[in-house]
Amino acid sequence: MNGNEAALIAAGAAVLASAATGLATALAARIQASASHRTQLAQLEHAKTQSRHMQRRQAYADFVKAVGVLHSQLADLVAVAGSSTAFHEKQQEARTDRATLMSATHVAFLEGPAPVGERVRDLYNSVDRYWTSVDRLHAAACGGDSEATQDRRQQMVTIRNESRRLRDLFVEAARGAL
Predict the structure, then answer these.
(1) CB 93 within 8 A of CB 73
(2) Residue 83 · residue 91 · CB < 8 Å
(3) CA torsion sign, 50 to 51 to 57 to 58?
């Protein structure tokens, strides 16, 4: 073998080695880019899941807080059930909290899932029944019939207790969804 042949073989080997190195580098870069892409997708999915979780948690918290505020307002109304003036003043204040509850109800219901949505609806309806029972207590107290007032008070207590039970069921379902 002469020098030209050796140089040709060496040049060919260098070209093949360079091509193999380039191919391996390209393949490694492709694998690294794919891994980086999967990592970014996983991070985005995690961030999306976290955001969804926090949004749901906030909706549930706002709802149960609105229930508690309205329960307090209704207790204040019960305390002045025999006074038309005081009752109507407090009732006006409570109407704002009732509207806040309705808004929070819609948001919490939409957040789902279905079992939590059912508990949201049940709890909202029980608070609405509580509101009605307080109105009826007021009407009986202002009517002067002590027996009717006592009956309405007992009905109101039963409805209030049921509402509290349903609040606990909602909290349990919400915790399960979170």
Answers:
(1) yes
(2) no
(3) positive
**Token pair of 5 as six digits:** 């042949």
Mean pLDDT value across residues 83-102: 95
Spatial contact of 166 and 123, defined as CB atoms under 8 Å apart: yes
What pLDDT, on the 0 to 100 scale, is given for residue 152?
A: 95
> What is the dihedral angle through the alpha carbons of 158, 164, 170, 173, rounded to the nearest 10 degrees?
-100
Residue type, 74: L
| Residues contacting 178, CB < 8 A, separation 6+ | 53, 56, 57, 60
Rounded Cα distance between 22 and 32, Å, is 15
Residue of 82, 94, 85 whose CA lies nearest to 148 = 82
For residue 58, name the pLDDT band (cuts at 50, 70, 90): very high
| pTM for the whole structure | 0.78
What pLDDT score does 24 carry?
A: 84
